[in-house]
Amino acid sequence: MHYLSEEHILIFLTQLFILLSLSKLIGNIVQKYGVPALAGEIMTGILLGPTVFGRFGPGLYSKIFPSDLIQQNMLETITWVGLLYLLLSTGFEVNLSSALKQGKAAFSIGIIGVVIPFILAFSVFYMLPDTLIYRGALADHLSFSLFISIAASISALAVIARVLHDLRIIKSDLGLLTLSGFVVNDLFGWLLFAIVIGFVSNGSSMDIAGAFKTFSAAALFGLFTLTLGSRIFGYSIRKLKQLDLPQPASTLTFISVLAILCGAVTQWIGVHAIIGFFLAGIMAGNTNEVSERSRETISQMVHSVFVPVFFAAIGLKVDFLKNTDIFMVIVFTSVAVGGKFIGAWAGAKTAGLSKEDSFSMGIAFIPGGAMEIVLGLLALELSIISEITFVAVVFAALFSSVLVGPLLSWTIRKRSGFDAGDFLSHKGIIPELKGSTKWEVIAELCGKISPDLKNISCKDIRTAVREREEIMGTGMTKGLAVPHGRLDGLEKPVIAFGRSSSGIDWDSSDGSPAKFIFLILTPLNDQSKQVQILAGIAKTISSEEYRNSLFDLNDEKRIFSSLRNRLRENSVS
Hints:
mainly alpha
């Protein structure tokens, strides 16, 4: 029997201290320059691992990261906890109801966005004459080609959510459709991955009967969790809150217990525990009983501690210099980035999006991010791919994640500019809102602007805005809310504004009540201006100095003049 010694614990704590502190430091530094923290965290592992530290300081490296099996298992365990909780928090982002309400558009973008890059990648890699150095010990040419095609097809929901947030368009209709398309993309991509795992789970590269049995069990469990399971989860949370237990601690504990149970079930089925954690996150993210703030609390904890250690530890597993194959890096990156762009663009065109929005959608789907790396790591652990292929997957994931922000920002800026201040309604200014709920506030703002709109009643506006609000809330950070809707018969966009000194609960991610509410109405078929208006409003309210100055203005005319000038300055051009 093996026991942990004092030295084991000391070395383990030293490893955690070095990995966590350096990964957060480097991650924060690169993030300031617009590079995802993920890149800095993996860079930390490369510097501390056999690629750099182990090559130039082998003596000290072997003391801090010894080859002792017990020591390695201690660090491996904590990194797996990070991976599991990363999938749990990723599941929070998967809003099934939004995807379903988006209907054809979300499914066209999501499914075509997987199928095209999958076919393209499979065609390229299956045609390679020799893949021995690229595939793992348990994979044959077909199973390797299937996996690499899935890795090239899946996109990173967390990366694009952050990019949309930074560009201040996450609450726009384009942002909603992008996230909804990602939901379908993720579910379809993980479904394909579960099938490949079924092929190799019994130690045979192509066990068709075993794969069918595994897939069927996984599909039934997934169907249960996403339908009846979500209702049971919501009911349980309501009962838990009635017990007057400490909140949100009790809810967070319940979510963790549920995730562990789901992970154990999927591991027993044979499709890996991470899929169970992913499904648990979806269940928690699709119930009104769990607030966005509670989900954000778990996500912050995961991304502050577990995720940096997990990605930094990846660099300890592989010598990136020794296993870099330029041919594989270039081919996989080109196929993954190009295939996902073409797939999402084609899906958007099929759904009837405009030329501008289709191009933006194609760009939005290129990042592989954490999910591509997770798939690569699992395939490496399952001996489906070699370390050479894993390095190529990591490079493609990082390259695409760094690329998407600047490219998507460019697609927004290149749209024809206009003065958003021209759409601000002079009569639609309310210095102090009377309503105490978001529905009352929306009704107030509707009542102010509806008399000036031809053939559009206040009821028509409320209905359109409420339908959009119920799909995905429009509460943003820093006390801003941007309820909006599209209306048939509206000739040009209209913006109304109201202030609330006490604030309105809008279920924002930072928990702050909404004090600055902009009601935005756009024509039904205008798919471009809304994105630019939202970006301009968010940029306007992002300044704390300006937010404070708005509260110093008590006259409707002065508020209107100030906002119009500020929106004009911040209009996208």
